[in-house]
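Fill-in record for T-protein.
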Amino acid sequence: MSNHKVVILGGQGAIGSLLGRLFTHFGCVVHSVDKRTQGVRSDCYQVDILNPTADSGVIFNEAKAVVFALPEAVAVQALPWVLSAVGDDVQIVSTCSVQAPFYSALKAAAPGQPFIGVNPMFSPSLPEQKRPVAVVLDSCHVSEHWIEQVLKQADMRISRMMPEEHDRVMALCQALPHAAILIFGLVLAKSPLDIRTLATVAPPPMRTMLALLSRILRNPIEVYWDVQYENSMAAEPRQELLHAIQQLDSIVQAGDQTEFGDNLRHIAQQLGEQLDISAADCQHIFSTLE
C-alpha cells in the first residue's frame, strides 16, 4: 500500500489530522482538504466542501481512498461531489460517530463503491497506542482490509462491526453515558449551593462525575450534539435512562430496601466478569484522585 494517495476531507480537524499522520507513517501520500489550511504546504487544499468550484475534482486524481473526516450531515452532503469525481474502485472511508446514515446514502448512490468506516473510540489528543477503534464493514467475514493494517501498525485495538450494529453499540457506549453526565450537570447547575463548597468536600465519585462533565464542557459542543442527535438509536437508551430515574425514585419513596437490593444484585449479575474488571478500574481512578 506504499505510495497510495489518500485524500482526507476535513484533514485539518482532530480526526483528520490523526488519520493523516497514521496514513503517512504507513507510507501513503496524504492530501488534506479543508475550508481552512495551515501554512502553504502543497498537499493541503482550501476548498469549501459544500460549495466546491467546478475544477476542484482534480484533487481526487489517482486517489486510492477518500476519507470523510467530517460531521455526519456534512459528510452526506459532500458525497455526491466526491462520487462524481472518483472511479468506482476508490475506497470511501467514513469517520462518522454514526455510520448507518452515511452508509445508506453511499449505497443508494453507488452500490458497488468500496466502503469502510473508522471510528476512534478516544480523543485524538491522546496517544493512539492500545486504544480501541471501531471498524465498520459491509461484512465482518471478509479478509483484513489494508486500512485495518494501517490501524494495526499504529497498535490500535480493532473491533469489527456492521453499520447498524455500530450505531446500536454507540447508542449505549457514547450516547447513554454522555446523557447521564449531562443530566448530572443540569441538576448541578440548578443547585443553589456554591460549587466551590461542593468541590471542597466532594468524595471520589463526585469528583469523577465533575471530571467527566468538565471534559465534555471543554470539548466542541458539536461532538456531543452529533452523538445524541444524529444517532436515531440513541433515543431508546435516553428514554430508558429517564425510566430508570423514575424507577429509582419510586423505590426510594416507597422505602423498599428489598427491591433496591434486588435491582443492584440483578445489575451485578448482568455485568458478570466485567464487574471485577470495572471495579479495579474504579479503584485505579479513585486512587489517582485521593
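KEY FINDING: The mean pLDDT is 94.
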